[in-house]
Amino acid sequence: MDSILVRGNGALSGVIPIAGAKNACLTLMPATLLSDEPLTLTNAPRLSDIATMTQLLQSLGAEVASLNDGLVLAMSSHTISNLKADYDIVRKMRASILVLGPMLARFGHAIVSLPGGCAIGARPVDLHLKALEAMGAELDLRDGYVYAKAPGGRLKGAVVDFPFVSVGATENALMAATLAKGTTVLKNAAREPEIVDLARCLRKMGAHIDGEGTSTITIEGTDRLGGATHPVVTDRIELGTYMLVPAICGGEVECLGGTLELVGAFAERLDAAGVSVTQTERGLKVARKNGRVKAVNVMTEPFPGFPTDLQAQMMALLCTADGVSVLEEKIFENRFMHAPELMRMGAKIDVHGGTATVTGVDKLKGAPVMATDLRASVSLILAGLAAEGETVVSRVYHLDRGYERVVEKLRACGAHIERISA
Ligand code: EPZ
User: Which runs of E-coded beta strand occur in 93-214?
Assistant: First the structure.
């Protein structure tokens, strides 16, 4: 298993290109199952999760060609030969459940392995299933799989009122509704930019959708969808992660492709901590306003609130802030596993349930640490960039799921960072 070695090297400055969004691409790819015409995605990120989704779609009989060094995904579901998504692929990536809605909507039946939990929580899929049942699906859960069928071969429009916001359940229901007979209304729908991106792509394919980006999305089902070419929206989580580099180290970084609308609540917290964020015509320019950042409180919420996927990275910054910060993780039940690793670097963190209290220290100290999940891995790299001495982050396979070319991107800003193959 590879590791990443980081040596604190003072202020970092430069330009970082931001890739297409992993969490948009992982729902745009299953959308190919809705149509027998080609769906081509551009600005795709080069990540192991994308390779896993590619493998899953190919196992169903879809054609997925990765072109232009992975930036283009040319897909076709003209000949789907298998409607069973196997556990051995699904268990590698929970987003695999997103093939359920499209397969059921187009073919009238589907067998998909339940994804199981992951490090940050149990992460059930009950809201996905309830939404599809509301649309007429008959579901049978046995031997770890969902056996789904649409009576008469077609889902029907329905009002789906989500008890709480779920990104994945909104995406599954949105895709399924595009081919259902009649009108579907999704209430308390997720508002993430990745949902908006999916709706825009589905509309290009011929879907009739209104309200994406708000809590109520209305879909008029149609008999079939065509093909499209669609650019994957910029990754707001990668963007926020690299915005923290000058915040934690000093210096000035311009994140190409970044926009304030993608990171509104996050940029507001940075501003409160004493970090300036300026929109340029190329992206977002970030630098400290004056010296050490100040402690701020953070509470994670569904979009447009502070993203849970930036909580671990923000905690790394606040470990070096002047004062005491309180971070409340409201989305997942176990998303502070980076805290004990940061404490190995001298951070002062007190975790009680979903609340972490961070008392800032002047300087973190480099140490060997272990990545426990995707966002924790990059939180430790941020801490290592600002720490005195050397940090070695192990289990970086977590990192490869969501961050492409981290070493190159950070080296371009003057970081002392290298990948050590085991
Ligand atoms: C998506 O996960 C993202 N993944 C996550 O990013 C992100 O953290 C999350 O949304 C929240 O923004 C992808 O888009 C591939 P949810 P998802 O359904 O859809 C509970 C990353 O680091 N829940 O909005 O699984 C769930 O357990 C990843 O890139 C149910 O109880 O998240 C969680 O506590 C991590 N039943 C909360 O709702 C359900 O049926 C929000 O989950 C579904 C969810």
Answer: 109-113, 138-142, 145-149, 159-161, 183-187, 208-210
